[in-house]
Specification:
rod-shaped; OB fold (Dihydrolipoamide Acetyltransferase, E2P); about 160 residues; about 20% strand; alpha+beta
């Protein structure tokens, strides 16, 4: 069974990859500021202050651009961790509705069938079959930020039923 990175999660080392790509920029800024201090008379306090601002700017930009530095997520693996609604009872095979589309699904916990209309969470993907398990009360996530009543009326991930 193949598992992807969690929804919203990042592969280990993404931050350090970002930092490594920023090092030449930081070194160049330091050299320019050092040159301005030595030959143009820029005060030491201003040079250090500008360098600190430059480094803080690079750190502050990480949350904005971190998606570019993570592994690409394409295909059915992008749905791992998503909430779906059972279209046909899963016993253990059936179909779930996710973002307005029907997907073949298999229940990881095949002890008892999951009835139609029950919420499930996609835990893995095998080929084009989602491996799902019934949603526990602590698993409920709403990406749209609406109330639970609004979310249930619209279906999974905010799509119309």
């Amino acid at each position: 069974m193949k598992r992807g990175t969690p929804v919203g999660g990042r592969a280990p080392g993404v931050f350090w990859g970002y930092v490594l790509l920023q090092l030449p920029d930081i070194v160049l800024a330091g050299l320019i500021l050092f040159g301005l201090h030595r030959w143009a008379g820029l005060s030491y306090a201003w040079a250090v202050g500008a360098f600190v601002v430059w480094v803080v700017k690079d750190i502050a930009m990480y949350p904005v651009v971190r998606g570019v530095f993570g592994p690409a997520r394409t295909g059915a693996e992008t749905f791992i961790g998503a909430r779906a609604v059972v279209a046909d009872a899963l016993a253990p095979l059936g179909y779930v509705r996710l973002e307005g589309e029907l997907w073949r699904a298999e229940c990881l916990e095949s002890r008892q069938p999951v009835p139609a209309g029950a919420p499930v969470v996609v835990r893995a993907v095998q080929g084009l079959t989602f491996l799902v398990e019934p949603e526990a009360t602590g698993d409920r996530r709403r990406e749209d930020g609406g109330s639970p009543a609004q979310h249930d009326a619209r279906g999974p991930r905010g799509s119309a039923r």
